[in-house]
Design a protein that fits this description.
The chain contains no helices and nine strands. With 103 residues, the chain is mainly beta.
Length: 103
Amino acid sequence: MSEFNNVTVVREANVYFDGKCTSRTVIFPDGTKKTLGILLPGDYKFNTGAPEIMEILAGEMTVRIADATEWVPVKGGESFQIPGNSSFEMKVTVLADYVCSFG
């Protein structure tokens, strides 16, 4: 899907890691949420409440989910899933454009 129609966009940005990760929240008519964001190169760790799907539109990184021991390469056109009440780490090597779906 290259565009989202009939949605509400929250005006205020989500800003993390001193501005190295920014996103905007998009709310769909059925109440589901996605964030559209940019990650600058760097190392990041996030905690999850609900399950998430991270779709990488552009960029490159390695990802480690929860207590996994191995890092998995992910690049533009790929995605990965994170369980709810969990965490994941990312080592972003090339600026990344992403969509995160919740629930």
